[in-house]
Fold this sequence. Notes:
The chain is extended. The protein starts with a strand and ends in a 24-residue tail after the last helix. Helix content is 40%, strand content 10%. It is α+β, with helices and mostly antiparallel strands. Strand 2 (15-19), helix 1 and strand 3 (38-43) form a beta-alpha-beta unit. It is built from 6 helices and 3 strands.
Amino acid sequence: MSSSTQASAGGGRGHIVVIGAGIVGTASALLLQRDGWQVTLVDKGGPGEGTSFGNAAVISPSAVIPTAGPGILKDLPRLLSDPLGPLSIRWRYLPQLTPWLLRFAAASRPSRIEEISKALAALLERALQLQLALVGLPDLRRLGDHQPATPVPQPRRGR
Length: 159
């Protein structure tokens, strides 16, 4: 099932299609709209029902540790031998994949992890502040009349 929400605010600069209605796609659509673009937001589900549903639509400023870590290399044999594990490789593709794997291994050095973490922290430093500012935009309400996938429990009043 696919869904698209067309927001026609602005429209003076042209039309842009944003693929993905998670937090990044929705934020991008809102900011483009605010700058005068006509925006169509396209996703296979409703806004926030994909990846952003699992992360509560938060770009977490604390998520700065890269996947390539010192322990990942020693875990590779175990990860690759588990048919239901999170990592699989098409062995016939290994020659083409080798340059990327070598860069991944180099990125798992402790000094490189520190560099990457600092760079990510700088990028995400204002993420929460900017996200809260987006919530206040009036265009947020016009993205569509989608109901949450899971009903939000209402607080119970005293008996």
